Each structure stands twice: as structure tokens, then as C-alpha cells.
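Appendix B. Raw example, untouched.
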Amino acid sequence: MNPSKQAKIFDKHARLYEKRRNKSTIDTKFRKKLLASASGNILEVSAGTGTNFPLYRNVTSLTAVDFSTEMVRYAKEAAKEVSFDCTVIQEDVEKVVFQENQFDTIVSTLSMCSYPHPDFVLEQMGQWCKPDG
């Protein structure tokens, strides 16, 4: 699907995602376990409304990217609730530019299936992540 069409769909559903942001859902325990190993300078792609933000434990800084205007609006509010530096960027992950070896950890929860070119996204993540990340 065209990313701009997808973004509009997520814009329409952002309020529903925001309502469940602070609730414990069936996937919360799995995300907690996954994010417990994330550390340092973290990039989260397709961050949505910031549902993962309070689950991070060993964060120096977090950069969160999402292509939906409404998701980003809610994520910026969620970023104010955490104790670490959190920057939220509105951009298509297939177009965003980061420096090579910039991040210690890159997180993507439940989003790889939504990219038109997931192989390209994974390749980019490999470049953005430090060699030992």
C-alpha cells in the first residue's frame, strides 16, 4: 500500500491507539521483555503513539519515528512523560536519513509488515545501528 494512504489510515485510528497506550494489553509482557534489552541511544521506528516509551529501562536517548501526523502528535505528548531525552520525528522510515552507526539499539515492534520495502528498511537499520548494537 502507498505510504501516504497508510499514514491517513493511521491518522484516523491514532485516537484508538492513544486510548490503549497506558493500558496493559496481551502484548505488554512481551514488549516489556523485548525492550528490557534495549539500551543506549535508541531508535524506535513506527513508534505510533509512544506506547513503548515507558517500557524502556536503560536509555541514554530515544529517537522515535512515525509517518502518521496524528500518531506523532500523541507520541510527542507521551515523550513528555518519560525521564529520558526523547525526540519524536514525523517521517516515512523508508525516507528518513540518519548517520551510519548512530544508534546502539533499533526497535521495531509490530511494524515490519507495513513497509512496502521491508528489505530496504532492514538494510537501513543495519547501517544506522552500531556494529555491536
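End of appendix B.
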